[in-house]
Design goal:
The chain has about 400 residues and is mainly beta. It has 6 helices and 25 strands. The strands form 6 sheets. Strands 6-5-14-9-10 form a 5-stranded mixed sheet. Strands 7, 8, 11, 12 and 13 form a 5-stranded antiparallel sheet that branches. The protein has a 5-stranded mixed sheet with strand order 18-25-24-20-21, with no helix packed on it. It binds ligand MTE and molybdenum atom (MO).
Length: about 400
C-alpha cells in the first residue's frame, strides 16, 4: 500500500479537504462508456505506481490497456516538458507498433475538399513552410482524480499535461492544397490507432473549420527539436494550441473536410461540458446542443511545483513559492500568491514568455515571522480577465479542474 505521502506526491501535494474518501472508486457512469469498451480499473489514483514504458522515463501509471501515464510533478519545474517524461493518453488499446515514417501516408480529402491528395512524410516536411509554436497539451480530465464527489474516468492527478515546442506544417496550408470548398464546416481527424473490439467506436475527432485554419494549428512532426515519441503520435500529430488535448490527434492518417456536423461517439457523446458553466470564449457551435457543448479551450490554471504538503520552513528566513501557469491562449497576465490561506495576496514575478500558449513560470518569496501552520496558494489570471476558481465547478465528466491549490506547510 502506498503511504498517504506517496499519494500526495503523486497528486502534486493538493490538500484534500475530505480526507481519504476520494480514494474510493465508484463505478457510476457519469459519461456513457462507448459500446464494447471496458471501464477502466478501479483504484488507479490510489496506486500511482511509477512505470517506464518503451522510450519513456518512469511515469505515473493509470492504466496499461489502453496506456495512460502521467508526468510526475518534478518535471514541471521547467517550462518545457522533456519528451521522455511527457504524459501519454490513449482511449483504445489497438495502437500500431512503431510506424515506419517512409511507409506512412496522410490522406487529405472529404466531400468539402475539391482536390483530395496524399502526402508522404517527406512531402509533409518539405512541401510546406515549417513553423514552430510552444504550446500546452493538457487532457480535459487532468486532475479528475481530485473531483469530490468522484466521477468516472481515468483518475488523473495533476500531470496529464505537458508543454513542448512543436514543429510542423500549418494545417491551413495542407487544407489549401486540398481546395477547401465554401461549404466546409468541420475538419474530421483520424489516427492509426483503433479499437480491438469491433463494436467500440474508433477514436476520431473534428474541429470547426475556423480553428483548423488558425495559423497556430499544426500537423506536427517534431517535439522539442526531436521526432515525436511513438507514444505521443509518431510520425505526425495534430497540434491545436489553446484547446484541450482531445483534439490533438496522434498518428494522424486522415484529414477530411466535411460539410455536416461530424457524427462520431467521441464528438457527439464524449468530451462535452454543460452549456454556460465555464467562462469560455471559444465555442464549437456546429456541435452544440441546448444542454451541452464540446470542450474547447483550456481554462486558466496554475501548479505549485516546489512545495510539499507538511514541508518545514524556517522562521525569519525567506522561502520561495514557484510554479507554472497557463490558459487557453489568451496569455497569463498575473499570478498571485498567498501564504496565509488567501487572506492576503502578492503578485509573483513571471518567468520567460514563450508565447501565449505556453506554461509561464512564476515565483514569489515569503518570510514567516512566527512559528506555526501556513497555507500556500497560487491563483493565475489571464489577459481576458478570467481567474482560477475557489470552488470546483462540477460537471459529469470531470473536466476543467482549476481550483486554487491549498498546500499546508509549517514554519519552525
Ligand atoms: N490517435 C489518438 N490521438 C489522440 C488520442 C487517442 O486516444 N488516439 N487521445 C487524445 C487525448 S484525449 C489527449 S489528452 C491527447 C494526449 O496526448 P499525448 O498522449 O501525446 O500526451 O492525445 C489526443 N490524441
Ligand atoms: Mo484527453
Amino acid at each position: 500500500m502506498p503511504s498517504r505521502r506517496d499519494i500526495l506526491k503523486a497528486t502534486g501535494g493538493l490538500v484534500l479537504a475530505t480526507g481519504g474518501s476520494w480514494l474510493a472508486s465508484h463505478a457510476h457512469a457519469a459519461v456513457p462508456n462507448p459500446p464494447g469498451l471496458a471501464p477502466l480499473p478501479a483504484g488507479a489514483v490510489a496506486s500511482g505506481d511509477l512505470e517506464a514504458i518503451a522510450g519513456k522515463l518512469p511515469l505515473i501509471k493509470r492504466s496499461w490497456r489502453p496506456p495512460n501515464y502521467e508526468t510526475p510533478l518534478s518535471y514541471f519545474s521547467e517550462e518545457l516538458t522533456p519528451n521522455r517524461a511527457f504524459f501519454v493518453r490513449y482511449h483504445l488499446a489497438g495502437i500500431p507498433a512503431e510506424i515506419a515514417a517512409d511507409k506512412w501516408t496522410l490522406k487529405i480529402g472529404g466531400e468539402a475538399a475539391a482536390t483530395p491528395f496524399e502526402l508522404s512524410f517527406d512531402q509533409l516536411k518539405h512541401d510546406f513552410p515549417a513553423v514552430e509554436v510552444v504550446a500546452v497539451n493538457q487532457c480535459s480530465g487532468n486532475r479528475r482524480g481530485l473531483f469530490e464527489p468522484h466521477v468516472a474516468g481515468v483518475e488523473w492527478g495533476v500531470g496529464a499535461m505537458g508543454n513542448a515546442r512543436w514543429k510542423g506544417a500549418r494545417l491551413k496550408d495542407v487544407l489549401a492544397k486540398a481546395g477547401l470548398k465554401k461549404e466546409a464546416l468541420e475538419i474530421a481527424l483520424n489516427g492509426a490507432d483503433g479499437p480491438i473490439m469491433p463494436a467500440t467506436p474508433d477514436f476520431q475527432k473534428s474541429i470547426p473549420v475556423w480553428k483548423a485554419l488558425d495559423e497556430n494549428t499544426l500537423v506536427a512532426y517534431e517535439m522539442n527539436g526531436e521526432p515525436l515519441p511513438h507514444w505521443n503520435g509518431f510520425p505526425a500529430r495534430i497540434v491545436v494550441p489553446g484547446w484541450t488535448g482531445t483534439y490533438w490527434m496522434k498518428h494522424i492518417v486522415s484529414i477530411n473536410a466535411i460539410s455536416k456536423p461530424f457524427d462520431n461517439f467521441w464528438v457527439k457523446s464524449a468530451y462535452r461540458i454543460p452549456v454556460g458553466k465555464f467562462p469560455l470564449i471559444d465555442h464549437f457551435t456546429s456541435q452544440m446542443t441546448d444542454v451541452n457543448e464540446p470542450i474547447t479551450e483550456m481554462v486558466v490554471n496554475s501548479l505549485i511545483t516546489n512545495i510539499d504538503t507538511g514541508q518545514q520552513v524556517p522562521v525569519d528566513r525567506p522561502f520561495e513559492v514557484k510554479g507554472i501557469a497557463w490558459d487557453g491562449g489568451r496569455g497569463i497576465a498575473d499570478v498571485e500568491i498567498s501564504a496565509d490561506g488567501g487572506r492576503s495576496w502578492r503578485s509573483a514575478t513571471l518567468g520567460t514568455d514563450y508565447g501565449r500558449f505556453s506554461f509561464r513560470r512564476f515565483s514569489q518569496a515569503f518570510t514567516p515571522t512566527e512559528r506555526g501552520a501556513l497555507i500556500v496558494m497560487a491563483r493565475a489570471t489571464n489577459r481576458a480577465g478570467a481567474t482560477q476558481t475557489m470552488e470546483l465547478i462540477l460537471n459529469p465528466a470531470g473536466y476543467h479542474h482549476n481550483v486554487v491549490q491549498r498546500i499546508a506547510i509549517n514554519a519552525v
